[in-house]
Amino acid sequence: MAGPIDEHTSEDEDDVEPFSDQLEAWLSSEGTKTVGDMGEVFAEKSFAVTVLLLMFLPALPLPTGGVTHVFEAITVIVAAQMVLGRKTLWLPGWARRRELGAATIEKALPFIARRIRWFERFARPRAVWFFDRRVGLRFVGLTIAGLAIGAALSPPFSGLDTIPSLGAVVIALSIILEDVVVFVIGAAIGAAGIALSITLGAAAVRLFQGIF
Fold first, then answer.
1. Domains in the chain: how many in total?
2. Rounded-to-integer distance, Cα 46 and Cα 147, Å
3. Which domain holds residue 147?
4. Contact status, residue 47 vs residue 82, Cβ threshold 8 Å
């Protein structure tokens, strides 16, 4: 009895479309692409997908004109709901109507797809219980919120916000791929980014005080 069941399960897993293909298909489809749309299209993984796309733009070394701070603020709202243990994503009207913008849809799309596919080749379900339990998700939410706030508080025009933002993106991927090893990698990247921001920020303050 075990043989046919295992074979059927394997076939089902092979039929699952990779997340990178699902994301690329949605971003390439017609119609508006708002933050609220993500919650409807990716209902099961809406928290992770929302964090992934919101923090990907701050993670890119591109001039954004301050729009990244809006995305980081929405990310904190999303992460707070994870900490509170919400099962469905809620966003205020202004956040739901916020469009991802051409920079995310057109410039970031190829970059996003390539990076996600790289992780999909090496990631596999590990410690899935961590992402299923409320305590684990609350810890993940706190980590994401901390990285989003750290990115927002990074010295302006320094580009240092990209590192904690990248950490948040990798953590979002760990939820989607259900791989705790990917989570640890993301947390390490984010922590290194915040430490670097604090170190260089403090050095800049000392330099400024020394001049004046």
1. 1
2. 19
3. 2-211
4. yes
